[in-house]
Structure to design on (309 residues):
């Protein structure tokens, strides 16, 4: 059974449940995805399916050779562990109907880049006081360590620095709706990344 | 963004100053029936929601209805009035008689 698939985040909207409750949802276009390689315990040491996503890339000769049996120039390859890889076929298309409303999935994406961010934004530091004779302290990080002892700033001290633009996985996201005709998926709440960015959807066990 | 959100296409033509009757689906246990809420539209968020105010037993009640809510079965516009504000919050404290003066 195929466990995961790739897609693109389209944007967010509001969804109304039949009960009248409304909540924010993210729309994801799933695929087109194809099985590009079948890995078995016997041959590769573990069971997995390699999935390719989105056509249209100029590929190198070795990459073309790898995708020869699929017949598609796929941009992105990704592997998903599974228990019964023999059931899948090379080149088999993976459709959005592998999900159904109510499923819990995990979503991996690259979060929006925030640039060089201060401690208040990056680690939710409280900053300094506004008043009582303070100046230039409102978003300052405060003390970063001792004095002669230990005589250094400890490694891993939370400070200002680059934020965002890293891989983020969120778990327990509920599938709200599936549109097999348009290959669209509705997920409850937000998912990491900007609209148009790639996300990896994985079924939770 | 492509729509599979299941939103409604027949959005009622409601404006601030309108007197409207909103028919709502209410579920109480196993019983399902239609309840109406009648009052004055004092706030409109285009394409999103509108707020209806009425005075019930001397208590002001404001309910905000999302246009796309499946619980709304229909909106009847009973009366139209010309108002000079987009949001009619200033009517909140006023008596019926004074409100009438502001609605033309």
């Amino acid at each position: 059974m195929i466990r995961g698939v790739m897609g693109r985040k389209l944007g967010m909207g509001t969804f109304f449940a039949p009960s009248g409750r409304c909540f924010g949802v993210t729309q994801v276009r799933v695929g087109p995805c194809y099985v590009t390689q079948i890995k078995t315990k016997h041959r590769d040491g573990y069971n997995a399916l390699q999935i390719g996503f989105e056509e249209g890339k100029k590929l190198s000769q070795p990459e073309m050779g790898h995708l020869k049996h699929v017949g598609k120039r796929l941009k992105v390859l990704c592997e998903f562990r599974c228990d019964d890889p023999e059931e899948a076929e090379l080149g088999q298309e993976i459709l959005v109907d592998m999900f159904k409303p109510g499923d819990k999935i995990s979503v991996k994406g690259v979060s929006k880049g925030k640039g060089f961010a201060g401690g208040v934004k990056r680690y939710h530091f409280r900053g300094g006081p506004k008043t009582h004779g303070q100046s230039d302290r409102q978003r300052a990080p405060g003390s970063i360590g001792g004095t002669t002892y230990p005589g250094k700033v400890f490694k891993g001290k939370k400070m200002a620095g680059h934020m965002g633009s890293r891989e983020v996985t969120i778990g327990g996201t509920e599938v709200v709706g599936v549109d097999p005709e348009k290959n669209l998926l509705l997920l409850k709440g937000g998912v990491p990344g900007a609209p148009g960015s790639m996300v990896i959807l994985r079924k939770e066990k | 963004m492509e729509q599979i959100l299941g939103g409604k296409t027949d959005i009622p033509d409601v404006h601030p100053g309108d007197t409207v009757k909103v028919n709502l689906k209410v579920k109480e246990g196993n019983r399902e029936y239609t309840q109406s809420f009648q009052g004055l539209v004092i706030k409109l968020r285009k394409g999103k929601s509108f707020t209806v105010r009425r005075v019930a037993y001397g208590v002001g009640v404001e309910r905000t209805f999302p246009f796309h809510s499946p619980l709304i079965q229909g909106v009847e516009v009973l009366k139209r009035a010309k108002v000079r504000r987009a949001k009619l919050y200033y009517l909140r404290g006023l008596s019926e008689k004074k409100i009438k003066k502001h609605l033309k």
